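Researcher: Sequence recovery benchmark, item below. Answer with residues only.
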């Protein structure tokens, strides 16, 4: 087996929890990193990319944005592909790294924005123009970048347009266009848009009439895609039984799902005056 394949085997064991339960020796983390490093040094761009992912996601190590971008840079320069540069820019922005010169980011974006078929580069450009990272803050330019991302089918950018129209950011406020973009994003499986539509139908909003059945359908879809608050909302609805039939089993199921999706469901229940559900029973 190659160094890369051996490293992959160790990573799989870490991801399935062998390290947590003590089946895997902590020293294997160092061995995995050494194997990926040797793979990268031998000319395998995937070795550097996987090291970037190790530090990006915190697989067996603490998350480290600086290390992650350094490895994604090595992978990209070795020919891994545009995804390595996208990760590089994404981490730099979200971690607000000051170690990467603004001109470096802008030059990369200018070079990649039309080559990227996913629209992710334009999306990140929109974020950065909104927050004044690398670029001077400019909401109108941010809105335009998001439009360019949407043209490439990016669902995250679709939901951002929903937000921009809702608040009138870089564009004239327009509630109906905001709703339209929320629907479009949800149709393209954007989890935040799906959750928002659940909320719109749960309460009634602008042109959307209250419809609890549709609210439950959207909340359920969002919860199953990993939205913790959507699962928490469903748990609360089923335990209260005010607008749906009370169902303690469903409440427990969604309470557990909310917890698994890293949502502070116990705090959420407390804010509603509800007792925590014992998921150990």
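Model:
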């Amino acid at each position: 087996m190659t160094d890369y394949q051996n490293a992959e085997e160790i990573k799989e064991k870490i991801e399935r929890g062998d390290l947590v339960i003590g089946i895997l020796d902590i020293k294997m983390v160092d061995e995995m990193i050494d194997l990926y490093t040797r793979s990268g040094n031998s000319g395998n761009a995937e070795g550097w990319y996987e090291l970037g992912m190790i530090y990006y996601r915190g697989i067996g190590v603490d998350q480290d944005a600086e290390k992650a971008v350094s490895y994604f840079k090595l992978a990209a320069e070795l020919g891994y592909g545009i995804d390595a540069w996208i990760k590089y820019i994404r981490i730099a922005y979200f971690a607000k790294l000051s170690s990467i010169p603004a001109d470096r980011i802008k030059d990369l974006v200018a070079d990649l924005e039309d080559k990227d078929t996913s629209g992710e580069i334009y999306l990140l450009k929109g974020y950065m123009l909104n927050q004044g990272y690398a670029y001077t803050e400019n909401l109108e330019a941010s809105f335009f970048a998001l439009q360019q991302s949407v043209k490439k089918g990016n669902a995250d950018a679709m939901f951002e347009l929903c937000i921009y129209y809702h608040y009138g950011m870089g564009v004239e406020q327009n509630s109906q266009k905001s709703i339209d973009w929320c629907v479009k994003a949800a149709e393209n499986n954007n989890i935040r848009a799906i959750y928002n539509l659940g909320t719109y139908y749960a309460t009634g909003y602008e042109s959307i009439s209250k419809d609890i059945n549709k609210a439950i359908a959207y909340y359920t879809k969002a919860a199953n895609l990993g939205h913790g608050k959507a699962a928490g909302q469903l748990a609360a609805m089923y335990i209260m039984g005010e607008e749906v039939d009370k169902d303690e089993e469903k409440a427990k199921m969604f309470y557990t799902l909310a917890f698994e999706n890293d949502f502070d469901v116990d705090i959420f229940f407390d804010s509603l005056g509800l007792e925590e559900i014992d998921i150990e029973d």
